[in-house]
Amino acid sequence: MLPEHVAIIMDGNGRWAQRRELPRTSGHEQGAEAVRRTVRHARRLGIRYLTLFAFSTLNWARPQEEVHELMLLLESFLRDEREELLENGIRLMAIGERELLPPQVRRVLEETEAVTAHCEDMVLVLAVSYDGRRDLVRAVRQITALASRGELLPADVSEELIARSLSTAHIPDVDLLVRTSGEIRLSGFLPFEACYAELYFTDTHWPDFGEAQLDEALATYARRQRRFGLIDAQIAGMV
Ligand code: IPE
Ligand code: IPE
Ligand code: MG
């Protein structure tokens, strides 16, 4: 009953800090600690794919200082975690418009992807400068480019082709999608990939997220019945 792919919208760093009358950046710093705890725990539990929404395309419009701080945090997270990722067989992959990242952040990201490329125990997907609609647009452009060269017919366009053209090409569909901090929305996260996901919302702010909160989300998932359009009797017959 363990989901193969868990995706998390890590929300609420700002509100966590605000409550403590701290600057938003200290919420992001504590958020990075929550990432460490969550990745470790997911790995221990045997989750195969963990996708974390770290920074959206729309987040570029935040005050420059905050954007800068988030980029620094991303860079230091990648530098600090590299060894641990390797030791634990965790492959890092990034989705999103990496060309928009500051060059040194992109470099560290791609180095981390390269050095962990052989790791097979878990895949950690970081969504940075990500927006699901933009990713779909990119995929459609790629597909229409093939078509305009005569390499593809309209009938060749399938769900599989679209899935393979997204930045999540080699990553299975999301089974469980978690959002912290009480907002009940998806904010552009994995629209195609999480189409059939179970959704789980918690009021916990991201910096307070950890082992117990992940366990709770997984326990809730385990109690859900995924029907995929079928009726109870059919599901019973399948098991
Ligand atoms: C999530 O926390 C982190 C990012 C979006 C980068 P927020 O910064 O959105 O925190 P709130 O929603 O303002 O509390
Ligand atoms: C979504 O959170 C993006 C991330 C968690 C990185 P936001 O806080 O930016 O989303 P909205 O503004 O609530 O939609
Ligand atoms: Mg937010």
Report on the architecture of this protein.
The chain is of the alpha/beta class. The protein has a single domain, classed as Decaprenyl diphosphate synthase-like (Undecaprenyl pyrophosphate synthetase). α1 crosses α2, α2 runs parallel beside α3 and α3 runs parallel beside α4. The two termini are 13 Å apart. The site of one 3-methylbut-3-enyl trihydrogen diphosphate (IPE) has 11 residues, from β2.
Please give a quick description of this structure.
The chain is α/β, with parallel strands linked by helices and 239 residues long.
Percent strand: 15-25%
Shape field: globular
Instruction: List bound small molecules.
Output: 3-methylbut-3-enyl trihydrogen diphosphate, magnesium ion
Number of helices: 8
CATH first level: Alpha Beta
CATH architecture: 3-Layer(aba) Sandwich
Task: Compute the average pLDDT.
Answer: 97
Number of domains: 1
- How large, in whole angstroms, is the Cα Rg? 19 Å
Distance from first to last alpha carbon? 13 Å
Q: SSE order in H/E notation?
A: EHHEHEHEHHEEHH
Q: Identify the strand order in the major beta sheet.
A: 3-4-2-1-5-6
Outline the biggest β-sheet: 6 strands, parallel
Number of strands: 6
Q: Could you list the spans in which at least 5 consecutive residues all have pLDDT below 50?
A: none
Name the structural class. Answer: alpha/beta
Q: Any idea of the CATH topology?
A: Undecaprenyl pyrophosphate synthetase
Write out the CATH superfamily name: Decaprenyl diphosphate synthase-like
**What percentage of residues falls in helices of 4 or more residues?**
40-55%
